[in-house]
Amino acid sequence: MEYLLSPGAERAMTAAQSWAARLGSEIVQLTHFILALLDEEEGRVAQLLHRLGLSPDRLREQLLALPPAPPVPSPETLLALARDWSLSCRQDPQVLTDALLLAVLQMDPQYAAAVAPLGLDLPRLQAAVLPASPAPESAAESTPYPLSQAWPSPLPPPPSETSPRATTTSPTAESAPPPAPQLTLEPIQNAPSYPPPDASSVSSTSVLISPASAAPAVFDAVAPPLPLLRVLDTNCNRAREALRVLEDFCRFVRNDPSSTEEVKTLRHDFARWEQRLPLSLRLSARDTPADVGTTLTAAGEYQRASLEHVCQINLKRLQEALRSLEEYGKLLDPSWAKHAEQFRYRTYHLEGRLLHSSRRQQLLAQARLYWLFTPSAAGERWEWRLEQALSGGVQVVQLREKHLADRACLQLAQALRRRCHQARVLFLVNDRPDLALWSEADGVHLGQDDLPIAQARHLLGREALIGVSTHTIEQVHQAWQQGADYIGIGPVFPSQTKAFDHFPGLEFVRQATAVSVRPAFALGGITPENLLHVLAAGARRIAVSACLSQASDPASIAAQLRALLDSYALPGVNSVDSSGPAPVPAP
Length: 587
Ligand SMILES: Cc1ncc(COP(=O)(O)OP(=O)(O)O)c(N)n1
Ligand SMILES: Cc1nc(C(=O)O)sc1CCOP(=O)(O)O
Ligand SMILES: [Mg+2]
Hints:
InterPro entries: Aldolase_TIM, Clp_N_dom_sf, Clp_R_N, ThiamineP_synth_sf, ThiamineP_synth_TenI, ThiD2, TMP_synthase. It contains 27 helices and ten strands. It is an alpha/beta fold.
């Protein structure tokens, strides 16, 4: 949509971006617009402030001292609001700089409350801004408007005596001019195309908007009645807020780039869709102090049992909000309602992904004891050793064969996969995504010199588990960023399985576990004798080879390791079911 901006307003739109860049912000915040408007030294805003006894320099300083302001949803939203206001109050679609300032202050009630003490008090500014008759910006830059100027157009009657919307009473009232309304729209006398309010509600709660501002909206010319707008406004807010919570969950709790991306895309698509209900209309219907729902609380509203519970609650809230938007949206426009329904379906996919994660992810989340197994080194007794390890409580088996021919290796992998799956134990292949694929393993383990994660993922798909060896904290961050499902952290101690010339040791275990929210398995020379040190450094999961592969009684060694490991609780964020029995003893 094209907007008609005065030269000053146009400059301010660009200057806001410069302010954002200057202050090191990636997004343009509300404050950046005000700072941009203050730069117009000869402009309407400067004159307005002068009339109100405010110093632009002082204001600039105060604004710069405020915490980061909310972002502007989009320049389009801001301009639509400014243009709506100009049309209603000046009967002129041109957006002047003062209209831009008022629009900025209407974007976010909390922000408006924060800047009001600086003198940027919305009702006061609105009252000061309005001319007796519209004047072009160029001609009027030096024409001060009297503070007591009345509103030029009649306003909708207040919906309730007690609400602040009572401030929207007609300016012809005998008392002092009330604070200005956030939006001035004509009361509607009849509703030609909009169904189905009864006659009494039409005149008191519906508003007529100009066709120009209705262009991108979901209705023609006649806006919905206020109660309907309130339902839609509230549920749009609910849905957007829930999406934010879910995005944080995927990003910070699950550390999962792929689901984070899914929620982010959903949030952006939703934001685009909700803009079809113009913000100006939504704001005109908003009436928080009079909303009977804001003071009601439900049992459990402030209780959350775990991070997963927060996720679950917000998925439900999102689905309910979308259902409400769909049902009430049917009164507006069937295609709008259809979109709400499609968003709701997308949340079911998300729910499956976040709450009912795959068998593999669940087993991984619970896994504490991981075994690197080289059957060729066990000779004919490899099956016996496997059974022993499984009965002792090994939860992940990795086939680690360095010298076996591919075909023999594939046959071994298939046999191990069958047995492990029978035992509900994860089976992974070391080094070789191709063998992991053909043996239908649960995933692959990759070292720093093996194939990169992206290539292995391409081959194995989204559901496969991919583990990565890490030896430095940089490698840990990199592995998580690249989408590893788990990491190996080591070597902790000298190993009988592999020779190392560098040991990041327990300090690395400390660092790596502190920054990891997904499974991290400490490994390298770990035995029942030294395990307590590893646990004390923060590890809750380990991978071992020699201490099981060379033990005469692998089952009992595995059981000892498990008993010690199980006596420490797994961090809740790592587990789907974190309600395990384990008390946390002092190490
Ligand atoms: C669980 C786990 N962690 C680390 C490794 C080591 O992998 P890599 O560095 O590729 O060395 P090799 O095992 O391939 O010699 C691992 N295999 N498993
Ligand atoms: C193969 C391997 N990689 C390690 C790493 O730190 O990346 S430690 C290790 C050997 C693990 O076996 P054991 O328990 O016998 O020491
Ligand atoms: Mg390797």
